[in-house]
Amino acid sequence: WDAVSSIDMPRAGGILVGNAIAERPDLFGAAVSRVGIADMLRFETTANGVGNVPQFGSIKTEAGFRALLAMDAYRKLREGAAYPAVLLTAGYNDKRVDPWNAGKLAARLQATPYDVPGVELGHHGAQCSFDAFIARFRLDDPALARLASIVRAADCARPQDAPEAPGLLAVSRG
Fold first, then answer.
1. Spatial distance between the Cα atoms of 97 and 75, rounded to a whole number of angstroms
2. Structure confidence by residue, pLDDT tens digits, 86-135
3. Fewest beta carbons within 10 Å, which of 17, 37, 67, 86?
4. 93: how many CB neighbours lie within 10 A of its CB?
5. Which among 69, 48, 47 has a CA at the least distance from the CA of 57?
6. CA atoms 38, 39, 45, 51: torsion sign
7. Which pTM value belongs to this model?
């Protein structure tokens, strides 16, 4: 197999992303799980989880438990394994997948914290976290530079700096 550059999927697609990097981390250079489900054994206990029992199964039956365990990326991660770069997002206003799913998986992957005070990948002066990522990993793609100007305008409360910023801000708030 040749490694692919990345894998990126939202919500229930996070099951695929999580399992792909857990089972075959050598195939990916990067992975993105946008508001993804990582802990399938706990998902049923969330507000939206019960409604997904017909699709995914229930921890209350042996067959359901085994099926959920088989798709539970969190429990498949191995200590000391070399995983690709992973970006996990959470939607604090998204009622479908609780934010702790991303946080729990990030902790298990020994994530690098960002966008919190005092860390390398955070706000510094007029620069936002996105700028810090670009600088840290020496990304010089013109498209990323343009995207950075939009993210910076939305993230640093300067929507007048990019016409797309208000829309990005609205989407990020759910």
1. 18
2. 888 888 777 888 888 888 888 888 766 666 677 788 888 888 888 988 99
3. 67
4. 8
5. 69
6. positive
7. 0.61
